[in-house]
Amino acid sequence: MPPLPSLSPLNLETALRAASARIGRLDARLLLEFVSGKTHAALITQAGEFLAPEQQARFLALVERRAAGEPLAYLTGEAGFYGLAFTVTPAVLIPRPETELLVESALAISDALPPSAEILDLGTGSGILAVTLAKCLPDARVTAVDASAGAIEVARRNSERHGVNVRFHQGHWYAPLDAARFDLIVSNPPYVAAGDPHLERGGLPFEPRSALTDGGDGLACLREIIAGAPRHLHPGGMLFLEHGYDQAEAVRALLLQEGFREVRSQRDLNAIERVSGACWK
Ligand code: GLN
Predict the structure, then answer these.
(1) Which of 88, 92, 96, when mutated, tests ligand 1's pocket best, judged by the most ligand atoms within 8 Å of its CB?
(2) Which of 11, 48, 119, 280 lies in the 20 to 30 Å Cα band around 207?
């Protein structure tokens, strides 16, 4: 499919049709809604309305970027997670639906947490876990850590956007936390092994490499987080980790080896063991 003509003025309908042929109807529509500021319904009822020249130029440029593989979320700067809208930039991983399982696992045990539970999100990225948990558990005190200053900036914006109070620290896993202890630790760390062909597929080449892969066997960050957890959990505290489709057994073994109990894994909507959790003593 050749690039779209940029000279003749396009109305909403012709713009949508031309873009759909290049990037598919759904993404074309979402980009057109984004650029025109119109709802899906308005695109239909006002189909004959022309785009302003700068809107048209912007739309066509975004369609080309999408056609080149850039994820939609980076083009619009928005992604949904657990029913909430989050700001995303290329400094952070785009939220994945399977990560909602981590939220569900945490919420499922939240009755057992103390009233003002101390919650820690390691490698917060866009802040989806920290912000969603803070939103769902308004009495909890949520702390979030990320090694990337760019990520912290995005996560902070998301916490402000959702009106929740999260304490942010930049640093390597537990390093910025001194001796602080928590009732619940959650993490979706980089767990894709270096050289995994998935890293070159789909939108992944556009995402921060350091959020996807540990540069090693895929278990390096999970190992480090599990090894450090006993020094940062209260007795009876819980740890929940997202991991790769083939890592559940290894993660359970690491948790058992470290002395955790009630070690178990949960399956995501694709029936893949995706989250493992355990209780500290
Ligand atoms: N689930 C992500 C993917 O494969 C990886 C996320 C991560 O490493 N934490 O696209």
Answers:
(1) 96
(2) 119
For residue 154, the surrounding DSSP H or E stretch is helix 149-161
pLDDT tens for each residue of 161-200: 999 999 999 999 999 999 999 999 999 999 999 999 999 9
Residues ≥6 apart with Cβ < 8 Å to 226: 239, 241, 251, 254, 255, 258, 260
For the packed helices 25-36 and 12-23, what is the interaxial angle rounded to 10 degrees? 140
Q: Of 236, 230, 245, give the one whose Cα is nearest residue 276.
A: 245
What is the biggest distance separating any 2 CA atoms in the chain, rounded to whole angstroms?
Answer: 69
Instruction: Find the helix or strand (DSSP H, E) in which 278 lies.
Output: strand 273-279
pLDDT (tens digit, 9 = 90+) per residue, 199-215?
Answer: 999 999 999 999 999 99
DSSP state of 76: H
Closest CA to 155 of 98, 103, 92: 92
Tell me what percent of the chain is helix, strand and coil, each rounded to the nearest 5.
Answer: 45, 20, 35
Reported as half-sphere exposure (CB side, CA atoms, 13 A), residue 211 has a value of 27
Query: How many angstroms separate the Cα of 164 from the Cα of each of 4, 140, 142, 158?
Result: 43, 10, 9, 9
Determine if ligand 1 sits within 6 Å of the CB of residue 190: yes
Q: How far apart are the first and last CA of the chain?
A: 60
- Give the distance (Å) from ligand 1 centre to CA of residue 212: 5
Residue range 58-93, pLDDT digits in tens? 999 999 999 999 999 999 999 999 999 999 999 999
Q: 48 CA distance to ligand 1 centroid (A)?
A: 42
